[in-house]
Specification:
By secondary structure, the protein is α/β, with parallel strands linked by helices. It is 38% helix and 14% strand.
């Protein structure tokens, strides 16, 4: 079997684009992959076209070899920009392999390690503690047992770009604190008690058994993040995500060492080489590798095994489309340290998934069952780009 061509399709999904790859073969099998890098979609698409020059004419039944060559032969090696293109190609290679062998990808990876994958959804912070409480109750009514919000005051004001009113469930950049606020600038000391009011209302609304998490998008410095963790400690959060920027494992370690709430991070890291320093320094409690950005299923499986040796669970970052969701589900079905999967999860966002692929994976009672179709089990719908056209995105932090 030989790869005959690589094609790309950019699909607009609300606040992001799904960058889809189709790898065609001379035996009629077509492999699908997806990545999302919403502010650089066209850049990733061009990289995919350049990668195709070395793929056409090769046997697709060897994702490991292809993954290593895409990484090393770029010469400049890692970084999420290159790894995102690699991720989509790698997933398409696994999809072909599963279809050729008549097995779901998770079985080829050594699974199953579990019967279903627990999922958490997004709950917009909103413009007030009361609004956040209502959004959490809505998530619970949809059947989820866990939800994450973006950091109140920094994100989530109604009417902001991509905000709560956008319908997808993602908070976006509608907060009261300026999107360009730098992590080392002065921040009013009252900020932390005001943020805590959101979580006090949220915890009262959904009770002790519903899990709540918060994503800071790296907007704080270590001292501010430590104050935030102390302010939120009474509300028993599932985790605090990316409290500081991603460049320095030492800064994250400083926060982790002062927080009783687990610290999650890793969505902006790629390959085993990018993740390793964060594990070696014990800078995080939960690793959020994004299968669509870290180098693909091949890279994510290695990263998960490395994290397992440090007793760190893997909870993939995944505010993505349906193919990327399938990629993460197949990974979690095959590793022993799978924790939970992120999805936007709103009815509006799930409807977008259904406009993109024929049989999207859907959570039921907060879980996704293991796919049984060969490969990833995904099929793009005809004319999907016309139904969901590409959109250019620019934004702040």
């Amino acid at each position: 079997m030989k790869i005959t061509k690589l094609t790309t399709r950019l699909v607009g999904l609300g606040f992001r684009n799904a960058i889809c790859v189709e790898l065609h073969t001379d035996e009629g099998l077509v492999g699908l992959g997806e990545t999302v890098l919403k502010r650089r979609s066209k850049t990733v698409e061009q990289n995919l076209r350049e990668l195709s020059r070395d793929l056409v004419g090769r046997d697709p039944l060897g994702p490991e070899s292809h993954n290593e060559r895409m990484y090393r032969d770029s010469f400049w090696v890692g970084g999420p920009l290159h790894a995102s293109a690699m991720s989509a190609v790698d997933a398409a290679l696994w999809d072909i392999q599963g279809k050729a062998l008549g097995a779901p990808v998770w079985r080829l990876l050594g699974g199953p390690t579990r019967a279903s994958i627990p999922v958490y959804c997004h709950a917009p912070a909103g413009d007030s503690p009361e609004a956040f409480a209502e959004n959490l109750k809505r998530c619970r009514a949809w059947g989820y047992r866990a939800a994450k919000t973006t950091l109140p005051l920094f994100y989530g004001q109604s009417g902001g770009a991509g905000g709560a009113g956008a319908g997808t469930g993602y908070s976006g950049h509608g907060g009261r604190i300026a999107p360009g606020h730098r992590e080392a600038e002065w921040l009013a000391t009252s900020t932390f008690s005001r943020i805590a009011e959101f979580f006090a209302a949220g915890r009262e609304a959904v009770g002790p058994d519903f899990e709540i998490a918060v994503d800071c998008h790296g907007r704080l410095n270590p001292a501010a993040a430590i104050r935030l963790a102390a302010a939120l400690e009474p509300y028993n959060l599932l985790f605090i995500e990316e409290p500081v920027p991603p460049e320095d494992p030492g800064a994250l370690r400083e926060v982790t060492s002062h927080s009783t709430t687990p610290i999650a991070a890793g969505e902006r890291l790629s390959t085993i080489y990018g993740v390793r320093p964060y594990l070696e320094s014990r800078s995080l409690s939960i690793l959020q590798t994004d299968v669509a950005n870290c180098g693909g299923i091949t890279a994510a499986k290695k990263i998960a095994a490395m994290a397992e040796s440090y007793y760190v669970p893997v909870s993939p970052h995944n505010p993505n489309g349906p193919i990327a969701t399938a990629m993460a589900v197949h990974l979690l079905a095959a590793i022993p340290n799978g924790y939970m999967l992120e999805m936007i999860g709103s009815p509006e966002d799930l409807a977008l998934h259904a406009k993109m692929v024929a049989a999207p994976l859907r959570p039921e009672n907060g879980e996704i069952g293991l796919p049984q179709s060969p490969g990833l089990g995904m099929e793009l719908l005809p004319d999907v780009e016309r139904e969901l056209p590409y959109q250019p995105f620019t934004a702040g932090r």
